[in-house]
Structure formats: C-alpha cells, structure tokens
Write a structure and sequence with these properties.
heterodimer, A: 240 residues, mainly alpha, Fumarate Reductase Cytochrome B subunit, 1% strand, globular, B: 534 residues, alpha+beta, four-stranded mixed beta sheet, two-stranded antiparallel sheet, 27 helices
Chain lengths: 240, 534
Amino acid sequence: MTTLLWGVLPYVTVALLVAGLIWRYRYDKYGWTTRSSQIYESKLLNIASNAFHYGILFVLAGHLVGLFIPMSWTDSIGVSEHTYHLFSLYGGTAAGVLTVFGIALLIYRRRTKAPVFRATTVNDKLMYVVLLGAIVMGMVAKLTHASGDGYNYRESIAPWARSLFRLQPDTDLMEGVPVLYQVHAVIGMALIALVPYTRLVHMFSAPVQYLFRPYVVYRSRDPEQLGPRPERRGWEKTGA
Amino acid sequence: MRPMAQIAMVMNLDKCIGCHTCSVTCKQAWTNRQGMEYVWFNNVETRPGQGYPRRYEDQEKWRGGWELNRRGALKLKAGGRFKKLAGIFSNPRLPEIKDYYEPWTYDYKNLTDAPLGDDYPVAQPVSQLDGKPMKIEWSSNWDDNLAGAPAYGDLDPMVERTRQQAADKVKFEFEQTFMFYLPRICEHCLNPSCVASCPSGAMYKRAEDGIVLVDQDQCRGWRMCVTGCPYKKVYFNHRTGKAEKCTMCYPRLEVGLPTVCSETCVGRLRYLGVVLYDADKVTAAASVKDEKDLYEAQLGVFLDPDDHAVQRACEEAGISYDWMEAARRSPVRALISKYRVALPLHPEYRTMPMVWYIPPLSPVVDALSETGHDGEDAGNLFGAIDTLRIPLEYLAEVFTAGDTGPVRASLEKLAAMRAHMRALNLGEEPDADVASAVGMQPSEIEEMYRLLAIAKYEDRYVIPTAAVGDARRLEESALPDNCSLDYEDGPGMGGDGPFGQDSGRRQLPLVSVENFHALRKRQTARTADDAEEV
C-alpha cells in the first residue's frame, strides 16, 4: 500500500498530467479556455474570483517553498524551525482563508445564479469536489497540527517529494506522516492528474508573453487555406 | 513608408431605411448558434438611442479604446499590460449579457401540447440563459425608430455630450423628434485596441487585407478584447468560452464577393473597396493631441495609389497589381479621400476605424419643402444645414469628435449635389457657383452623383480576390500533380499508376479560380454579350 500510494501514484499522476496536456494541445485546442461565466454575473465574480486566484497562487508558492527548499538551506541562513513554523502557519493560513473564502463564494455563485448553474458540466462538478477537497483537507491538516512547533513536514513529506524527482522514491518517509496530511497529499495528486482534463487546464496558458510582445499583432494568411483542401477524415462527400 | 492594404467599407446613411436586413442575413450566416444568441456582428441602431450594448459609447464606464498618457503616448484606456494581467481573474469592465439583452425563445410546444381548456394556449417567452420563463425587457433594437427616443433618448451618451455644448439643440418633443439609422459592424481598425488588449495574442490583423480576426485555437477566453473594443464589436461566446467577432466575411471577400451585409443591403448603401495606408504613420496619427484633429490625421495616413512613389513602395511590399488596380478604382477611397463626404465613426477612440459613414441629409429637404421653400435650391439648403432636424452637433459627436466643420462640409457637398443634379434633370443651366461653393468641379459633382445614386454592383464593390493576388503560390497547391488532360478517356490517358485507381491520396475535383469567376459573371450578366467578355 505504501509503495502504491507514495511510489506509484505520483508517477501515474505525472504521466496523466503530461499525456493529458499533450492530448489537449494536440486535439482540443478549441476547448482550451477558462470557460468564463462572467457575462452571466459579474459582481460576485469580481470579489470571489480575485480572492480565490490570488489566494491559491500564494498557496502554490507556499507549497513550492515547503516542499522544495530543504531544511538545511533555511537552517544555514539562520531561520529556526520555530520561526519557520510560525511563518508557515500564519502565512499559509492567511492564504488558505482567502482561498477558502473565494472558492466558497464561487460555489455559492455557481449554485444560486441560474445561468451559471446551467452552464456547469458534470466535469466541472467533479473538478470542484476534488479542488475543494484538496483545499479543505490541507487547511484541516495544517490547523490540527498547529500547536507548538506543529508537524514538521520538512523532515518527511518534503524529502519524499524531492526523492520522486531523483526517480528513487523514499516511500518509508511517508509512513509516519499523520493521516490528514496523507489524505491531503492523495487528493492533491488526484487534482494534479485532473488538471488537463478539466477547465483547470487554463492555468497552463498564463499569458506571460503579453508583457513582451508588440501591441498590435499582424499575421499573414495561411496559404494552406486557399484552394481546395483534402477532405478531412469522416467528412468525405458522397458520390465523389 | 510601409504601405499596407486594407479592405474598408463606407455606408451612405442617407439611404438607410433601418430594415435590419443586413443584421438578419448576417445573423443567419454567422451567429445562429448556441452561445451566440445575443450576438449581432451587424446591428442597426436608431440614433439618438443607447445602442447595442446599451450605452456602449460611454467610455468612462466601459474603458474601451486608447487614450493619451501624460507624456502624450498612446495607452489602452482600460490599463496597460501589468494592470491587464493583474485583473485577469475577473475583468472589472466587462459588460454583462444583460447589457446587451437576455436572449430568449418561445415555448412553442405548448401551442400543440396544452391540454384542452377554455383559453387559447400561448407560447411563453423562455430565457435561453437559464431556461426559465422570463419577462422580455430589452433586445438589440428595443428602442428602434421613434419607439425609444422620448423615453430612452436622454440616455444616449452622445446626447449627453451634445447637451453640454449646445444646450437646447437636442429635444425630444414629439413634433421635433429626429432620428437616423446607424448600421454597425466591426471597424477593422488600423490601430485595433482589441488586438492590443488580447493577453494570449490570439487576435490579429491580417497583413494582406487588414481584416481583424480571432484565432479560435489560441483564444483562452480572458475577455480583455471585449473591454478593449470601444465599439463593443468583439463578443464572448458563452458556450465555447471564446471571443468571436465580425470576420468581414473573409471567405467571401477572398473570392471577390462582397460581405453578406453588403450583398443583401436593400438600400444598396454599402461600398467596399481597398484603401492603401502607411503603417509607419498610424501610431503618430492616432496620438494626435487634439481629438478634433484625428479625422484629418487619419486622412493623412492613407496613400494615393496614383502616386508613382507609392506604387513602387507597394510593389516592393508585395502588394499585387490586382490590389493596386482595385485601390485605384476603390469607391471607398473616392468617398473618403477624394470627395471627403465619408467620415469615421468616433475617431476620438483613437483606433483608426475603417468603416466610414456619409452623414444623413435627407430630412432637411422635406423640412424645407414643408415650410414652402424650394427644398432643393442650393441657397436654401446651405442655410438650412445649420438648423437641421438632426443637429449638426449631434452628428459631429458621432463622426468627428465634436468638430462640426467636416460634417457641415460633407452635408454641403451632398446639398450641392442635389441642387446641381436637379438643374441638370430639369434641363436648366447648373449654377457653377453651387459647385465652387463646396470646392468641387461640376464634373466632379456628377461623378460623385454617379457613385452615390447609380452605382452598380461592380462599382460599389471593388474587391480584388485573394486568389489572384496569390496566384503563383496557389497554382502549385491547387493544380494536380498529373497532366490536366489526364482524365477518363482524355487524350492524356495517364493510367492508374502502379497500385490501381483507388490507391494513394484522393484528388479533389478542381474548380479553378478562372472558372469560378467565369461562372459568376455568366450568372450575373445582364445580356449574353456581357458574359462573353470574361
């Protein structure tokens, strides 16, 4: 079980993520969008969406710091475990509260505004369950183990996460981890695997290049568009 | 000089009867789909009126187009690159669907399925957004004709601005009500703020003909273009989550056919043609300090296709002979640059729009005739322009950022044309002073008359095909690899190749560009002789 959860599942997740992204880019560029519902309802979204997105970006940054900056690095610049814990507790909780507030308002909006609810697909609902699960379990795990110096995940989860990249997963490290953290990690992996198959895929099209390109874009006509094209598979005319 | 070609349109508002045929045919062709129910790439507004979406011209609210920053450089009114990205999670200035209108259908099924009762069954309106019965309160042309002016006319942002300047000019008392129709499509601007607003880089201006398009595969639905366009002519497809807009019917233009809205225009008021412009001058012209100079500045960007230096530069830039020839014969260029009767729509947005309008003169003739004056006498007409039922100030707010000069000049030319042509038709000697008063030669006036009043199909739409411009490249892609005589029982008799007839890639039946045009010419020719000279 340990091997399955902490040695196999992470790689399955990454495989699903990468394969899904390639598939989506190759075959469903037209579906690659935020599918915004803002034109149905704007006022609530202005508050909720900003709170959620900025919150989750801070949460993401927190996870990257927690998992991928080894304890020895912070020790060497003189940050004690206690300081780190407080920083992580208050910073993380603030970002988490912002995120939870955002997503709660987003779900409220989605449920109560009829046009928005009507535009919600089964896929969206599944995504919301997993996303909300990951966020809530993360908050619960963090706050349950908040007393004293809290649970030091930097001696178990973080080295395990880094070991995944060395392709030698150190699954034993995860055995002593509190159940709440384990649940959070599993839901988190499910969420990552889901990204390319849901509307969450829009996170991979963050338009950073907008900062560097000229304002007005010119493009020439695609010469392939002119003249007869071979018929696409499944669209051949009859009697030809 | 960096010459570029642009397909532009001019609409003669004097002829618009507000029949909405252009809107309906456009809708049937392009936006008759789920997610686009509320979208009209072409709409016809009654002015004064709020327009579609409501009060879209109020840029203090919607923040469309460009403005000058403190250093006098162009910046997007909705904020620069960083502000855009910071606000990407929820566009703070996006119109909601109810600012356009809530689309609906009717519960027709009830008409046949209702149980037997005392009352006739009715088809209730049902919202296409949430599927529930709804009360219809607004639509794209709710304040059509005079239905709206007394109640909603005050909400027109242009009326508000006119009032500030010419207090009593705009009244909505019933007997003094005025109106005209304004058909609108995408302006395919030279300095498009929607393109500049797109974070994904999915929107682009086509280099060959200046048509502004959205790449549906690259659009990620950030919705900044909707805010960026001051004319609100980029729409969000709420089903697919992508932006869509008027395409200038490019599949038709590419084969030399006019857009659907032009083709079906009952009043024949639309003109399509090529305009050459200097892309290097666009930014400078759009950053002119005084808004009232923007009209002149935009005229300065256009290039004269009869100028030899321009011709040489165009050749170097790869603009084909066909396009140069079309630019020379362009009715649009004649109305914009030569006769200067067409004016841009809201040049103050600094986007350099490329759909221009000839302001409406008509009501003044009737008004004069009613008061017992000769409605087509030049002296009466010139004097009356200042007291038009449609106030000059209002037209100026719409077409020249508030400068009445160019509007008056344009209307005077139209009035002079009426007087001159009436004299000709009555067999009188036309008064040469009438023409010279508006700075034109009598012969010029007659040419303009021909373009405005008679203009046959091929004079109104001078559209070079993409194919001829691209002929050499096309020849390679369109012609089959084998011999053209190599058909069944033909003299070529090339045979089936080593793997039999049905092996390998299928060749499509070929329709060459020449054949297409020959066919069209034959189908549209008036006499058999016309059809021969292809």
